[in-house]
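Let's practice the habit of predicting before peeking. Look at the sequence and jot down your guess about where helices and strands might fall. Then scroll down.
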Amino acid sequence: MTRQATSIRWTFVVLALMAAPALAQNAPPGGPGGPGGPPMSGFMQPGSGPLQLLPPDAGPQPLPEAATPYAPSTAPAIESKPLATVAPRDTATLSLTARLTPDGPPIGAGVVWRIFAEAQGPDGSRELVAERHGGSADFTLKPGGYFVYCGFGYAGTTAHVTVGTGLKADSVVLNAGGVRLSAVTGKDRPPIGKDDLSFDIFSQELDSHGEPKAVALDVAPGQIVRLPAKTYSVVASYGDANARTTADIDVKAGKLSDVTLTEKAAKITLKLVSSEGGEAIADTRWSILTQAGDLVTSGVGAFPSFVLAEGDYTVIANHEDGQFQRVVTVVSGENADVEVLAAGGQKLSD
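Done guessing? Here is the structure:
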């Protein structure tokens, strides 16, 4: 190569180096490799690959809903499109509301929601996917089929639903109502207290043994019991002996019914005394029999109390080697103190 050719070559190199800064300043932001520009051959474009490479020990990181638009902190504020976004996972929102009747208002409290997977496991069970307590509830689920259980007290129903992406709203009608139970011993008598009274509620259907199916047991007076709308049998138990009352009740959908039963019974308090109005003798064993001689109940103490259905009974008191008895008439609603006289170990009848 001649000296003249070499000089000309270096002149072009110098001119190119002098022009490079000016070209960089005037280059549009959408040039090759930049935001909005054509891709540079052989390079991965921002947004076409992972947003961030993490070291192996960084642990799981949450995915952002959308990537922030790329803009260096020193660049001028210009409108630009996001270089990359992370598409949210496909999800469905299932919005559930429970009602007692089709035209009734939504139930605001006391509802139990359980969502089960459609597929059964090896043992035949289904996975519990979600559970909520309260009133209406929203569930975020993967698209697919599910079984939805809605419970309200002793009323409940299960339905199959299929959800896709987006929002699905559904209303569950329970066709249920409520009942509140109480009992008295007669007209104008105060309600019997919860310490001595309880209720058992049975279905009209029979179980495998031919007995009515138990629905709710040991229900306290004044307690609201939520039930499917139909007819039930109620047994009121006053005390622990033989005071029982049975009645049929109708539960109406969307209604709360107050039902008061009448117990024909009374409470008697016993004491064994040496003379009328005397001190009660401790460590006395008591037995109460029907007039046919059947044992009704028994107890031990100086002042035992028993609730008995109205009728005539034989009260027997045993103390040390003596046995004493008295016939007692129980009148409904008339609680009474009953004395049994002890006279020299003799068997007495009054």
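How did you do? The chain has three domains: 92-173, 176-262, 266-341.
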